[in-house]
Amino acid sequence: MVHVFDTARLRLRELALDDAGFILELVTDPLWLRFIGDRGVHDVESARGYLQSGPLEMYRSQGFGLWLVERRADGAPIGICGVLKRDSLDDPDLGFAFLPAYRGQGYAREAAAATLEHARQQLGIERVLAITSPENFASANVLRAVGMRFEQSIRLKGEDRDTWLFAWPGPDRPDRAR
């Protein structure tokens, strides 16, 4: 398993097929389904398929993707965080999700802030976007806390609802790269 980086409390590493059980738990969480959507993952085998066609393929094609977030203290897998490249957005975007037991403890903020710095310093990505449902106040608060700024409400291709678009550096920063 490829180690990406550590923070004070967390270790981020590439996902592997062995993480299918964790992925099944994460993507069937009611808040994932509400805010991110059903990815067709309903058993361990479909979780492996999701990993192969999603994160593992993105590692191969882009050199980055969603990473597993583990607590350094005990190695517990608690969520995912990373940078994705979607066809529907001009720049790479930050994505994250955490299991219910680990929400509200600052883990998302810690992982997201470190991921943005890693994107700039190690991956050479100057501008990172993020999208979230307007009703997902917790995610929007994390994005604001790590220095992302709301840009606009958009409708992604194939979607039937509006999405909030954030950017880092934010639109009010003079060093904003385009």
The percent range for strand residues is 25-35%
Gross CATH architecture: 3-Layer(aba) Sandwich
Number of helices: 5
Number of domains: 1
Strand order of the largest sheet: 1-2-3-4-5-6-8-7
Mean pLDDT, as a whole number? 93
The amount of helix comes to 25-40%
Going by CATH, the homologous superfamily would be Gcn5-related N-acetyltransferase (GNAT)
CA-CA gap between termini: 34 Å
**Low-pLDDT segments:** 173-178
Strand/helix succession: EEHHHEEEHEHEE
**Tell me, what's the shape?**
globular
| Topology, number of strands | 8
CATH topology title: Aminopeptidase
The helix-and-strand class reads alpha+beta
Gyration radius, rounded: 15 Å
CATH class: Alpha Beta
Could you explain how this protein is built, in words?
- A hairpin with an 8-residue loop joins strand 4 and strand 5.
- Strands 1-2-3-4-5-6-8-7 form an 8-stranded mixed beta sheet.
- It has helices at residues 20-27, 30-35, 44-62, 107-121, 137-145, and strands at residues 3-6, 10-14, 66-71, 77-84, 93-98, 128-132, 149-154, 163-168.
- The chain has one domain (3-168): Gcn5-related N-acetyltransferase (GNAT) (Aminopeptidase, 3-Layer(aba) Sandwich).
- The chain contains 5 helices and 8 strands, in the order ββαααβββαβαββ.
- It is globular.
- Helix 1 packs across helix 3.
- It has 178 residues and is an alpha+beta fold.
- Mean pLDDT is 93; it is low at 173-178.
